[in-house]
Amino acid sequence: METKKSRELQLERNSNLYFAIGLAAILALIYLALEWKTYYPSYDEFAQLEITDELIEEVPITIQKLPPPPPPKIQTPPVIEIVPDEEDIVETVIESNEPDQDTEIADVSDIEVIDDDIPDEVPWVSIEDVPVFPGCENADDKRVCFQEMVQKHVRKNFRYPKLAQEMELHGRVNVIFTIQKDGSIGNVRMRGPHQLLEREAERIISKLPQMTPGKQRGTPVKVPFAIPITFKLQ
Fold first, then answer.
1. Per the database record, which ranges form the TonB C-terminal domain (predicted)?
2. pTM to 2 decimals?
3. Structural domains of the chain, ranges and CATH numbers in brackets
4. Mean pLDDT across 166-191
């Protein structure tokens, strides 16, 4: 004979209802916790300025006497002088400086000649007669021929230093040298990423041949020239 259980005493009867009520209550508590806001009291409520009576000082009233104004300047009336009548003025005759048949001709040796103000050094872009590189004497454009021959000289004498290759040194060396009045190369200046590359650039420029110097108004002058030498690892 099976035992009969009453449905009112079964715990599983309203389990879904209890679960829904508990879940709703938990969600409501979470929502209230997230939306809860608190406010801190303002610092203005605690910060107050108090001035004691001892620090308050009454400034005494003083009366300052101003200096009296300076006396007004009395302008004296101008003195009128009576000038006597001028005497008869003798007019001077201004002689002409134009040469005529009676003018004496000066000797050529007595005439002073002013020397032309020619600078000692003239930039490459403004030199009248550029320096002539050997082999460019008959070129139509000696300026372009000079630049091409210098570049050809650099490519011919270029040697990448082994130590610089091992150190993986590379970059551009800017070289400025001056063609002197006698056609020689001097005043070589360099600026590059390392001394090894600068020394190699100096060695290349030192092998430049003797040139015909540049001239300004027919006078030999110094002419600076700049060229970059690039060291690039393969």
1. 145-234
2. 0.49
3. 124-231 (3.30.2420)
4. 90
